[in-house]
Amino acid sequence: MIYKRVALIGLGLIAGSIALAAKRRGLAETVVGTARTAQTRETAQKIGLVDEVFETPEQAVKDADLVILCVPVGAMAAVAAQIGPHLKAGCVISDVGSVKQAVIDAVSPHLPDGVIFIPAHPLAGTEHSGPEAGFATLFDNRFCLLTPTDAAPVNEVARYRDFWEQMGAKVEQMDAEHHDRVLAVTSHVPHIIAYTMVGVADDLRRVTNSEVIKYSAAGFRDFTRIAASDPTMWRDVFLNNEAATLEILGRFTEELFALQRAIRKGDGELLFDYFTRTRAIRRGILDAGQDTDAPDFGRTRSD
Amino acid sequence: MIYKRVALIGLGLIAGSIALAAKRRGLAETVVGTARTAQTRETAQKIGLVDEVFETPEQAVKDADLVILCVPVGAMAAVAAQIGPHLKAGCVISDVGSVKQAVIDAVSPHLPDGVIFIPAHPLAGTEHSGPEAGFATLFDNRFCLLTPTDAAPVNEVARYRDFWEQMGAKVEQMDAEHHDRVLAVTSHVPHIIAYTMVGVADDLRRVTNSEVIKYSAAGFRDFTRIAASDPTMWRDVFLNNEAATLEILGRFTEELFALQRAIRKGDGELLFDYFTRTRAIRRGILDAGQDTDAPDFGRTRSD
Ligand SMILES: NC(=O)c1ccc[n+]([C@@H]2O[C@H](COP(=O)([O-])OP(=O)(O)OC[C@H]3O[C@@H](n4cnc5c(N)ncnc54)[C@H](OP(=O)(O)O)[C@@H]3O)[C@@H](O)[C@H]2O)c1
Ligand SMILES: NC(=O)c1ccc[n+]([C@@H]2O[C@H](COP(=O)([O-])OP(=O)(O)OC[C@H]3O[C@@H](n4cnc5c(N)ncnc54)[C@H](OP(=O)(O)O)[C@@H]3O)[C@@H](O)[C@H]2O)c1
Question: Which reaction does it catalyse (chains A, B) (predicted)?
Answer without folding.
Answer: prephenate + NAD(+) = 3-(4-hydroxyphenyl)pyruvate + CO2 + NADH
